[in-house]
Design a protein that fits this description.
GO terms for molecular function: 4-alpha-hydroxytetrahydrobiopterin dehydratase activity. This is Putative pterin-4-alpha-carbinolamine dehydratase. One of its GO terms (biological process) is tetrahydrobiopterin biosynthetic process. The chain contains 11 helices and 5 strands. By secondary structure, the protein is an alpha+beta fold. The chain starts with a helix and ends with a strand. β1 and β2 form a beta hairpin. About 55% of the residues lie in helices and about 10% in strands. The chain folds into 2 domains: about 120 residues, Uncharacterized conserved protein DUF2267 (Globin-like), CATH 1.10.490.110; about 100 residues, Transcriptional coactivator/pterin dehydratase (Gyrase A, domain 2), CATH 3.30.1360.20. Strands 1, 2, 3, 4 and 5 form a 5-stranded antiparallel beta sheet that branches.
């Protein structure tokens, strides 16, 4: 299991804005879990996990946490987030761990109280994508819907898995742009992935862990277009 693969998987599944935030979240979840298992299990975790996480799970003392709510509160404290969000992040970490080392997850399941595992293991997702029957859950757009949306958006590309726009600006304008875009996303309770490289930044919009494009993503893309126009006088498409 490669450390960077684990971090990027958690970043994508938990819809975190940056890799640094994903690294902090992985460390927080595993350090908290280490407080829930025996010293012997902590030693096995240290042996099986990437070296960068060894110190996170080598915690002193006996088992401290046996309650699921207490687990989420501690993860939330370490990540400066809400318990609800902590559960989402914890599930992302365990999903990534299972993909990289399923035997380790099975060992942890044998050690952890069932109440803890209920918080950390996500419910199975149905295969494929279907039209939502819940009015509060956005429906995935069809390929034709996405093509129509891209025609009216500025410099966006994408498909059924996500929308992308790269903007190049002087570096002193990128941070204000990113801050404004993230504020717009919070305002509409949506998520935007931000990848900054030199004098350019790429915004990626999708809904759900596996990626889908919905109307709220298109709405946020339009808002981002307005922000780019205001902050960077339109910027210019990244090459």
């Amino acid at each position: 299991m490669r450390y960077q693969d684990l971090v990027e998987s958690v970043r994508d599944q938990a819809e975190l804005d940056t890799s640094e935030r994903a690294r902090e979240s992985v460390t927080a979840v595993l350090a908290t879990v280490a407080h829930c298992v025996t010293p012997d299990m902590r030693a096995r975790m240290a042996e099986r996990l990437p070296g960068a996480l060894e110190s996170a799970v080598e915690v002193p003392g006996e088992t401290e946490i046996r309650d699921g709510d207490a687990l989420l509160i501690e993860i939330a404290r370490r990540t400066d987030d809400t318990p609800e969000r902590a559960r989402y992040v914890g599930q992302a970490v365990f999903t990534a761990l299972r993909a990289g080392d399923p035997d380790l997850v099975d060992e942890l399941r044998g050690e952890l109280h069932s109440d803890l595992m209920e918080r950390l293991e996500p419910a199975a997702e149905p295969p494929g994508r279907a039209r939502s029957v819940d009015p509060q859950v956005p429906t995935q757009l069809s390929d034709a819907d996405i093509e129509r949306a891209l025609r009216r958006l500025t410099d966006w590309t994408g498909d059924e898995n996500g929308l992308h726009r790269t903007v190049a600006l002087p570096e002193d304008r990128l941070t204000p742009l990113i801050n404004r875009v993230q504020a717009e996303a919070r305002d509409v309770n949506d998520h935007v992935r931000v990848d900054r490289a030199g004098d350019s930044v790429t915004f990626t919009l999708s809904t759900g862990r596996r990626g889908a494009v919905t109307e709220p993503d298109v709405d946020l893309a339009e808002r981002i277009d307005h922000v780019v126009a205001e902050v960077g006088s339109g910027g210019k498409p990244g090459r």
